[in-house]
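Changelog-linked ticket: 6-chloroguanine example.
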Amino acid sequence: MNFHIMTLFKEMVLDGLNTSIIGKAVEKGVITIDAVDIREYSTNKHKKVDDYPYGGGAGMVMQAEPVYAAYQSIADKIGQKARVIYLTPQGQTFNQKMAEEFAKEEDLIFLCGHYEGIDERVLDKIVTDYVSIGDYVLTGGELPAMVMIDAIARLVPGVLNNDVSAEFESFHDNLLEYPQYSRPETWRDEKVPDVLLSGHHGNVAKWRREQSVLRTAERRPDLLEKAELSVEERKRFNL
Ligand code: 6GU
């Protein structure tokens, strides 16, 4: 899978993503991450990419042409249709289901805005998806693009060392993950739950399921409405 990022801050996204597990996946060739500097497509002699908003008001607006030319350079390179995601607090809030949908694509283009926004005309022409990462305001789209790429890339086969782990985790069925323990068996007088040392796989699975449901009820009761719980579970946990 190929991630293409249109930005004024290439180093920020590339430095941030080319480390850790995502960086390993890039090294392995399972995914690629390319950043295009929108400023390189400015036709202005000072490489300016923003100007005053028509109608007045605070701040500057990113101009249409450099954004469009940067987009064209990517479109020409990949030679097929690709979704263009504009990171904006005015977008649909990103979630795991959207990550799973985006992970099916071969190429994704991320457009990171700055200043007070981007000229609406180029957005109308190229953007297919308006996405936010939550109800708060950031200075630009780079961190949101990095958040989305991390969440999407880890769903691509071969990115995680462990193929099954992406399927059995928080949110795939609207339940939070069960608690985890590792050595030592006793740490500062606190013991690992006996069932996990029993070697009884059936009991371990049952305990983990209970913990998932309990933990979701306690920490994210809003998720439980969407979770598929058995009649017994609903009764047992008073849901
Ligand atoms: Cl996608 N962009 C900006 N600038 N702020 C945000 C956001 C995006 N999502 C939440 N806050």
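Closing comment: Example verified and attached. The domain at 2-153 is CATH 3.40.1280.10 (Alpha/beta knot). Residues 87-89, 132-134, 136-138, 140-141, 144 surround 6-chloroguanine (CB under 6 Å).
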